[in-house]
Design a protein that fits this description.
The protein contains 15 helices and 32 strands. The protein is α+β, with helices and mostly antiparallel strands. It has a 6-stranded mixed beta sheet, sandwiched between helices. Helix 1 packs across helix 2 and helix 6 runs parallel beside helix 13 (436-445). The relative contact order is 0.08.
Length: 593
């Protein structure tokens, strides 16, 4: 218990000696002396962790608490379309609806087992009956309150849905093993939930194991920004054991409490709108889609537009496989009658007729085709101009590095950049190469991925190109910081990329009066282009670099000469060709990476 004269200060997870000295109203030299007395050698710019800083602060009459940054409205993703539409509803028509819950967390921490325990408990209580078929979502009853669970495969699918403008969940249950603690996928799940503006309830699983260490895990969660309500935070951390069926009722009670504080509402008689949970083609029944109704009431026979597909609802079933005529808000329903398979995360809406639904879908397809040709990714190069045009208010970053120790100095350096015009918001950091999950998070949050001493594999690059996500990698920290600093000041020049397009071997040379030397060549790979740059190589060393002055095949001027053909070429400003030289044709383009 602290003395009444002890002052309290908030410290970040990592701080410098200089910053700590300011916090405790002392000189850096005095702080260094205290560190040395405790066996820590440090200079004024040395970074020290929270525990070390707290010891120093205590010796200087201060009680340190871990500083947990708040997430502002600007630091999270856009509000989903369906939620914005519900906000347009007349408040007097809104009623409470069951919360929709998805379960995220690190692999092997017990997500599936916990879902099974929740289902089994409910069935054993005789409140929901047996679940006869899997449709990606189901409802349970807890003390006469319905709760809808989405049986999503993980945070990648969760964010993939949000990247398409949807957000199926009202609450995220984050499963963390009490014997394993916060892992990379745990941090990733936290970032995804925050970007989606969704409250988090932590299920501290495997609490029954002998090596469980709940207090240590709670500290890890606090370091990640989830401070337990037992420690005066705002995150419910509920101990459970999915295998032993312990704490399940407490978890459900916690979900209900969070739901009551979150004002989860809808108008059952309003505009019918919702999200696709999953869809597939059934051999006997055709296209099936599981829809989650989020406002209004969906009825059998309704005409609906769903993403890029449409149809009339021929039949509708609940999660137990029973035929139903209607589905109210937060109710999952499997439907038949669509003319194609929609994507998970697509928004659906009820239309006056199937003709109107087809018209809406056709318009969406036209807009999609137009956006393909006009869509551009957010890059560091065009950041400043977008901010000036009012298109962006901050620079959102996802930071990946080779090791955890590399992340802290990068983050500290980014925080030191002048942010008076453009705010820098680091959404997510982790050690390791750039993954598809990083690209999905960047897609959903309109962020740029920065990597230090890491790479992105082919699948991640392909997804980034498809989704319009910029990935920049560096091998020197100061260049990364320098690029970001120039970007926020509008001074970063576009990056240029060289692409080799062909090679030719010099077979003969011809000296022409008043013209110069012409090289007779055979194109050995790719093509030689008239408007491209060329590099002359001799014995693997560069002899000259410049532009083509002319390119001919036989007696005709050509724009390009392809592999296997012979050509005569002249390079502007160069006349020293020798037989055996290699001519490399290449282009230089401004790129967005």
């Amino acid at each position: 218990m602290s003395d009444k004269n002890t002052k309290t200060i908030d410290l970040p997870n990592v701080t410098t000696v200089r910053d700590l000295a300011k916090k405790v109203d002392s000189s850096p030299i005095q702080v260094i002396k205290v560190l040395m007395a405790n066996g820590v050698m440090a200079n004024i710019n040395q970074q020290i962790d929270f525990d070390t800083a707290a010891v120093v602060a205590a010796e200087m009459g201060y009680e340190a608490s871990l500083e947990i940054p708040e997430i502002s409205e600007e630091q999270v993703g856009e509000i989903p379309l369906w939620r914005r539409l519900i906000e347009d509803e007349d408040a007097k028509n809104l009623v409470n609806r069951p919360p929709v819950v998805t379960i995220l967390g690190h692999v092997d921490h017990g997500k599936t087992t916990l879902l099974d325990a929740i289902r089994h408990t409910n069935v054993a209580g005789g409140e929901s009956g047996g679940i006869t078929q899997h449709i990606g979502a189901y409802q349970i009853m807890h003390k006469k309150r319905k709760i809808t669970f989405l049986d999503t495969p993980g945070h990648a699918a969760f964010t993939a849905m949000r990247a398409r403008g949807a957000q199926g969940a009202d609450i995220v249950v984050l499963v963390v093993a009490a014997n394993d603690g916060v892992m990379p996928q745990t941090r990733e799940a936290i970032a995804h939930a925050r970007a989606a503006r969704v409250p988090i309830v932590v299920a501290l699983n495997k609490i029954d194991l002998p090596d469980a260490n709940p207090d240590y895990v709670k500290q890890q969660l606090a370091d990640a920004g989830l401070v337990s309500d037992e420690w005066d935070g705002d995150t419910m951390i509920i101990p459970v054991s999915a295998k032993k069926n312990m704490g399940i009722d407490d978890l459900l009670e916690g979900i209900v409490l969070v739901a009551d504080n979150s004002k989860i509402m809808a108008n059952p008689h309003g505009t019918v709108i919702g999200t696709v949970i999953e869809a597939a083609v059934d051999k006997s029944r055709g296209v099936t889609a599981t829809l989650l109704v989020q406002n209004g009431t969906l009825n059998a026979g309704d005409a609906i537009a769903v993403g890029m597909t449409c149809g009339n609802i021929r039949a509708m079933f609940d999660f137990k496989g029973n035929a139903i005529e209607s589905a109210e808000p937060s109710t999952p329903a499997q439907i038949l009658g669509l003319n194609d398979v929609p994507k998970a995360g697509d928004i659906f809406q009820v239309c006056a007729s199937e003709r109107e639904a087809r018209a809406i879908v056709n318009e969406r397809k036209m807009k999609a085709e137009q956006s393909k040709s006009t869509r551009s990714m957010t890059t560091l190069e065009d950041l400043f101009s977008k901010v000036k045009a009012g298109e962006m208010g901050e620079l959102r970053l996802i930071l990946k590095a080779d090791v955890q120790g590399s992340l802290e100095p990068i983050i500290n350096a980014l925080n030191d950049i002048d942010q008076s015009e453009i705010k820098i918001n680091v959404l997510y950091t982790e050690a390791g190469n750039v993954t598809e999950n990083d690209v999905l998070l960047a897609t959903a949050s309109n962020a740029i991925i920065l990597g230090f001493n890491v790479h992105a594999d082919a699948s991640s690059k392909n997804l980034a190109e498809k989704e319009g996500v910029s990935i920049r990698t560096y091998d020197i920290i100061y260049r990364l910081i320098e690029d970001v600093e120039k970007a926020v000041k509008g001074m970063l020049a576009p990056e240029k990329k060289e692409t080799a397009i062909g090679k030719a071997e010099v077979l003969q040379t011809f000296k022409i009066t008043k013209v110069g030397t012409v090289a007779g060549c055979r194109v050995t790979s790719g093509e030689i282009r008239r408007n491209a740059m060329v590099r002359v190589m001799r014995n693997n060393e560069k002899i000259f670099e410049g532009e083509l002055a002319s390119l001919k095949h036989e007696k005709d001027n050509e724009k390009e000469v392809r592999e296997g053909f012979e050509c005569g070429l002249r390079v502007r400003g160069f006349n020293d060709f020798e037989i055996g030289d290699t001519v490399i044709s290449y282009t230089i383009e401004e790129v967005q990476r």
